Amino acid sequence: AMDGAPPPSSPAGLSAYVAVSQLLGLTLLATTGAWLGRYRGGVAWHSPLQFNAHPLCMVLGMVFLQGDALLVYRVFRHEAKRSTKALHALLHGLALVIALVGIIAVFESHRAKGIPDMYSLHSWCGMATFVLYLLQWFLGCGFFLFPGASFSLREWYKPQHIFFGIVLFILSITSCLLGITEMLLFKISDSYSHFVPEGILANTLGVLLVAFGLVVGYMLTREEWKRPPLSEELALSMDFKTLTGEESPGG
């Protein structure tokens, strides 16, 4: 700061939880890669291994990147709100693109092998989650990132956006758990009950998914860890109330 004041610090414990979340997220990706590489032959697009791009993309996009996007407002607490919004939208958009690649992979793989589509509970939950996630992203950009929506509309939609953001994160992890179980039953149904290494590794991936979700969820629901409004945001809110006589539009 120009006045010599020390830079603002993060609340106690927040940095440790951020570090744990990122460690869990990277471990998720490494475990997924180890499972696909060691037991499923790896990942290749124009080959019988194309299907394996699906679980990798879904864990990367719909879990890891989505979780990080949700944490943006906790981690970047003292940056300009506009920049934080843009990063939040960018990470969600990147997650959507990666998830779309994963969806294309599974449909093309099924078509090449003559396997029917969209009959399992995993496929229903997964597709519904993706479509709702895409809708949530478009609505979020329309209400918060681009100009046009009134303050009153933003204030009305903001709680819905936050609620459905957490719900979609939970649904994404649930869909991944269903997918892991389905894949194991298809590939190693005869030996799964004998605690074979592939089954143990895939179950470990499922436990890591739940752990990542719990850590991110805990960080999102800690009231004292919410991003505080910056001084210029408070000044803007006061000016708005003075000029209009309405309640402040808030952060």
Mean pLDDT: 90
- Label the overall shape: globular
The helix content is over 70%
Number of strand segments: 0
Decide which structural class fits the backbone: mainly alpha
Task: Indicate how many domains the architecture comprises.
Answer: 1
Question: Please, what is the oligomeric state?
Answer: single chain
SSE run: HHHHHHH
Instruction: Please compute the radius of gyration using only Cα atoms.
Output: 21 Å
Low-confidence stretches: 235-241, 243-251
CATH architecture: Up-down Bundle
Q: Can you tell me the CATH topology?
A: Four Helix Bundle (Hemerythrin (Met), subunit A)
By CATH reckoning, the class would read Mainly Alpha
Q: How many DSSP H or I helices?
A: 7
Q: Could you give the distance between the termini? A: 22 Å
- In this structure, how is the largest beta sheet organized? none
- Percent strand equals under 5%
Explain this structure to me?
With 251 residues, this protein is mainly α. It has 7 helices and no strands. α3 runs antiparallel to α4. The two termini are 22 Å apart.
Which labels suit this protein?
single chain, about 250 residues, mainly alpha, Four Helix Bundle (Hemerythrin (Met), subunit A), 7 helices, about 0% strand
